[in-house]
Amino acid sequence: MPVCKIKVKNFDLFYGKFRVLKNINLYIKEKHVTVLAGPAGSGKTSLLEALNRMTELVDNARVQGKIYLDDRDIYLMDIADLRRCVGVIYKRPNLFPKTVYDNIAFGPRIHGISDRESTDEIVKSSLKEVKLWNEVKDHLYKPALSLSEGQQQLVCLARLLAVRPDVIMFDESISVLEPSYVQRFEELIQELKEKYTFFVVTSNVQQAARISDDIGVLLFGELVEFGNTGDVFTAPKDRRAEDYISGRLG
User: How far apart are CA 15 and CA 22, in angstroms?
Assistant: First the structure.
């Protein structure tokens, strides 16, 4: 029986008086791929940002309800520890204006790894894990921003893996890439879910069907359907979810 990695209970998010998320109940299983699908403006990114407390950067944001990571209330956790455990790959690469090596070494250095041999090994193993080592091993000390967008996103993923997160979240990060990189990321996720838990936000229903073990459909801030992907696609319980999956809505 899969272990629940993240539990969202009766969760509401407000920006000022506007209720962005409405009584969300969601269970993200360990070492599974959970996808949150829905049209633009439905609140998908807001929920993703709530999972590592990025919403706290918004002045008028407030929350109700609970979110747990391994049965720990995330609002009682040290924020730096939470964000190490729950990392995000954003829609566009957010690399530092540094070399490929320094981007990936940044996290380990922050967490106290300073000797060169250990850092070298972490950088190499992280790049190998995302299958980018052979492409960049001779360019480690060149600016990471000189790489293609797909390669930059792979470096972002390697940078996350360097600190060994528990959960990796993608915020519409895959479907916007060139098709060859879409395929690379989808294959990587399937391989890496043996070690990591994935939470993927996407508006691409076909991609959601390909990569997810469980899927939620979020419409106008309301989670109208959630469950095993095969069950949701073949026999959705909510008509709105059926309309969205079939393309009649959104």
Answer: 12
| Ordered structural domains, the chain, with CATH | 4-246 (3.40.50.300)
Q: Is 220 left (phi over 0), alpha (psi -120 to 50) or beta?
A: left
What is the percentage of the chain residues whose pLDDT exceeds 90?
Answer: 91
Alpha carbon distance 181, 151 (integer Å): 8
Q: With 0-12 CB in 10 A as exposed, 13-18 as middle and 19+ as buried, what is 209?
A: middle
pLDDT class of 250 with cuts at 50, 70, 90: low
Query: Of all helices (H) and strands (E), which one includes residue 14?
Result: strand 4-15
Residue 29 CA to residue 2 CA, distance in Å, equals: 6
Structure tokens at 171: 């915020």
pLDDT band at 113 (very low <50, low <70, confident <90, very high): confident
Measured between alpha carbons, how far is residue 100 from residues 131, 135, 165 in Å? 14, 12, 20
Tokens at residue 189, please? 């996720």
User: CB 223: neighbour CB atoms within 10 A?
Assistant: 24
45-65 confidence digits (pLDDT tens): 999 999 999 999 998 999 999
